[in-house]
Specification:
mainly alpha, 2 domains, about 0% strand
Length: about 110
């Protein structure tokens, strides 16, 4: 992030930054800029720090949503089990006690 920030705010070339920070690759700076949501131009609207803040907020929101999904999945699993247990109880009551519990289709008037 420091390399990208220095590239955007100064007149230093990519080659000079590669030597200064001792890294290789012809497209590393552009990949980092893309990762931080920056354009490949030096006159970018977003700074790396703003992009990192948005990325952290998004990550927190995503984590909260993942937790919510897990809770909802667990609730659904419990409700399915409860429904299965109630249906089993009704089936047993209807067969052993000879009682019609479920509503029949086509109600009489």
């Amino acid at each position: 992030m420091r390399v990208v920030q220095e590239y955007l705010t100064s007149e230093i070339s990519q080659e000079e930054l590669k030597k200064k920070y001792d890294f290789g690759g012809s497209q590393n700076i552009y990949r980092w800029m893309s990762k931080f949501g920056l354009s490949k131009e030096k006159e970018s609207l977003k700074t790396p720090s703003e992009s990192m803040i948005n990325e952290k907020e998004k990550t927190i929101e995503e984590q909260e949503l993942e937790i919510k999904v897990k809770q909802l999945e667990e609730e659904l699993r419990r409700e399915k089990f409860k429904t299965m247990a109630l249906n089993t109880m009704i089936d047993i009551a209807e067969s052993e006690l000879k009682i019609d519990i479920r509503k029949k289709s086509g109600a009489k008037r």
